[in-house]
Amino acid sequence: MDTTTFIIGIIIILCAALPIILTNYFRKRREKLALQGIQELAKKSGEELDTYEIGMVFSIGMDKTLRHLYFSRIGEPALQVQLSKVKYSTILNKSHDVKTAEGNHNVIDEIGIQIALKDESQQPIVLEFFNAEKDSISVDNESRVAEHWSRLINKRLGNTSSRK
Q: Comparing C-alpha atoms, which of 34, 22, 42 is closest to residue 74?
């Protein structure tokens, strides 16, 4: 095999592998930054995250011992919710139907968790996992994550059934 063929082969392999390597690098970097926001807020409160999850534009975590929930969206400040002040959580799933030539399609507008507080004079807290107006990505597994975390919050609160 001559040197030219070898060099061309290496260049082709690099061109094929480079997008995969860069995608993985930027995904890990984004995840690290997303997690860092809620970890710093927990650390300021003298707490440590026990359970957490990272999505495309959000991170959510909970401290088991002191019963706090942490949530952050990329580009927004992290939020701390004291679970002792929470009554229950529900899944937020807003969508609308669009008519096309192929038929009706359901378009998701927003996915998240709505947290009702024990003090009913305060507005519920909304944790947005996906918002079609803000996010340039499509829905991935945000519905599953919202259901999981709503059940987890209600379980920690002692609520056996998730409200809809």
A: 34
